[in-house]
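Subject: Predicted fold for Alpha/beta fold hydrolase, 473 residues

User T.R. writes:
Posting the sequence so we have a shared reference for the thread.
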Amino acid sequence: MSYYEGCPELDAVLNKHKASANSMLSTAQSQLLCDTFSKVLAYLFSTNESAEGDVLNLNVEKVKTKISKWKKDIDDCLESFKESLQGKDELTDEDRYKQRLMEENVKEIKKIYDKLREEMDGVELDFQNAVRTYRSPIRQALNDISMLYDSENNVKGDFSGFENVSVYVHGIEDRGKGFKDSVRKIAEEGDLIIHIMDDSEEYQYVDVKTKEIKVYNNLSELQKETSLEDIKGRLHIIYDTENRNEHRQETSDDLAQRLNKMGLMNDRTQIDMFAHSYGGRRSLQFAIDYPDNVRSITTIGTPYETNTLAQGANNIRWFAEKFVKKDPKDDSGHLDFNKKNRNDIKGMEYSNAYTDMSNEPLSEDIHKLKAANQEVYEKLQKMEITAAAGYRKVDYYDPFTGEKTEMKTHSDDTVSVKSQNAEILGNLIDKRPRIEVKGRGLTDPGHVYEVKDKEFVELMKEVNKQQKNRSIR
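User M.O. replies:
I've generated the structure tokens; pasting them so everyone works from the same file.
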């Protein structure tokens, strides 16, 4: 087959490029790559139109390197032809015509190859986005396999003996330090507190004899003085997410992996979850994913509905970064299946806490769950789920009489009471207490004081006490 009439030298090179292209497509087995090659190179030669194999092996950088090599082959072909003309004493009109034709064809072919190389950037982005979309179900599956293996082979972690475990999950752009003071007030004699941070862990043991809280920088330090088998109290885990703004699914996957390594994802350990703000969404996601491991959930200040401030930060990201000092683009690599819950940075899509709260009330997930998996929904119904709301009191002055009246605000300045009380989740929520918190306006929101509020601390303490001798079901 002739691609360029009168240029057999180019035909020979393009035939080699066709074979090379089809070889790459067969190796890569990417339909996206096949479609791109077929579309861009149609004017030059035909390529494989479908990926029929089972193993995806796409390396975009190697493809780009190969395309650059093709361009060099075309240049070399033209130079070789020009050198062959230089040996002649005098060029004929046919020689001159063929040289011009070769030059024009080479220019055209290189332009097509440049276009193909540019398209590879889009292929790479689309491929990375697609891979990240499917990462969560793969991670969940690996977690499930790991838990099954540990159960079948009686693999135990360092904390396998603990049956009553409380896990505390912080909110958006926060860390577990807010829970740290509160948990120290909750912990009783013989309890162990573990603060799991990005790169370290801290252990605090409430000594049974002295009733003092002893702090250890690592597990080895603790075990030199106290054997874990001798600790009979509750285990409190303050969990810092790897990324502050990470999507709730990312937290659920990470937390499950961590707890499994500790030996706490089994049919004996009963987990009571406590959360502030977006941490409540993270905790509910964990309960949806692992309903047999969670006994209760207690949240305060959680936006169960979509959130106005999150929508603002998500849609006007530069404003949130510059003036509100938030980082709505911070991401852990998670990509939600729901395309509404995505944003992008130069084509690289991502999902995080802001995208989640901007577009999806948690009622949507619950409705889907109820339709798709009634068994899990019924397990959620049996859990003790408490959605506490923080509110403030403000002074109201009657415009006619000037009299001052103290009124409850409808929000904690960040999340409405209605959203915090999870009214959209209906009878899934067992209790909806309201707690007065300090603070004033958006410059000093009551939201930030909720996790340390005395009433909420007492609520967490009471839940720990009530759940101590109950079973999961």
